[in-house]
Here is the input.
Amino acid sequence: MPLKSRHLLGLDGMGREDIQLIIDTAVSFREVLERPIKKVPPLQGKTIANMFFENSTRTRLSFELAERRLSADVLGFQATGSSVSKGETLKDTARNIEAMKVDMVVMRHSASGAPHYLASVIDANVINAGDGGHEHPTQALLDMYTIRERLGRLEGLHVCIVGDIAHSRVARSNIFGLKTMGAKVSVCGPATMIPREIEKMGVDVYHHIDDVLPSVNVLNVLRIQLERDAGRLFPSIREYHNYYGITRQRLDKAGRAITILHPGPINRDVEISADVADSEHSVILQQVLNGVAIRMAVLYLLSSRN
Amino acid sequence: MRKLKAQIIDEAGFERTITRLAHEILEKNKGAGNLVIVGIRTRGEFIARRITRKIEEVEGVTLPIGSLDITLYRDDLLGKLEQPQLKGTDIIFDLNDKDIILIDDVLYTGRTIRAALDELIDLGRPKSIQLAVLIDRGHRQLPIRADYVGKNVPTSSSESIRVHVKEVDGEDAVLLMHPELPN
Here is the structure.
């Protein structure tokens, strides 16, 4: 059964079967990543352009590795120092790249909806690698894969996303995906970081982390974006850590096995204490490995749909 | 719907064929000492398990057995409208310097075997790869032949062969089917 869309723009509206298919396919690619030769040929002859209009290291590396592991030819593109800084429009940049006979485009952009626009003007398959505060579908898919791998299921689990929900595309994609898969989702953070009316997305809101810990199976801890003037949203880093930091003490008090995810890069002793990040509760490095497998699965499944 | 033309192998014949293939493999390799078994998903996997069980009975040994999903190595992926679902390769032992018995249900164009050979060689450097198939129906498109053949069945390319195994289909049998009727 194929995916319903020829692009991956977001998890909003993506059905359960499609999410399941992507995760199941990723399991097969995880096996490839354990081989002595970690490369398979299904995308031989395909050309993929990675268009990153916004800084990214790990997502870009993860996509690039996934593409190479599938034997695709890879074009790198970064906005700084390219024609974008000379004033070229997104449409013209994309058209030019497409004129080089590119089959798929992976795009990150600071504007929400940029990949949707791109998908409407070019023929290549478009994969959203993060658009503004909107969606980051492959991150949510790898999060769900990692949770399923650790706990055996998604349905019926309580997953709480902690941190700056208002500015997080990771949170939005996770909420869409997890709800579709039958998980109970809540968010936790100071009021300045929780968007108004987020309850309409079907999530519970908590302002005290100790209230949610007794019932939660999984914590997805978001990074505090210190570089984005997070200071406006809470008085001090120390205060944020005191109220929302995931510490050993808090987990011990909750007295249950809680799986901890983090999309990285982590700020040790801000949103998560260093010992918890390195503990058996944490699946942070597993997420990195699973991210390559998920991206291979998405690329493989979309590659035929032209 | 294709209609049945003939039953080529029945349940008893199936068992005898497996037994003979197991003995031929042992004879040619002078025992099971260096053998590993790899079945091609999906039907080849079950044939492989049967042959392995037979070899283990005869020799009193346990053999490493794995299964191969050749989908990622197919040569027709680019033309496809939808990607075939992956079932995963499951080979958890070392292939280096082993004699691999590669097993599939039907040998036809040879393209599946080409893909399997490429994948195996990416997984290690075996001493040899030998091919065992339940049915060889001819019509090769690549220079590939089997080392062990359960039964040669001359067919026309419009006919098809169905291999049924108890684990999936509830019976052991090989069926020759008529060409598909135009609607």
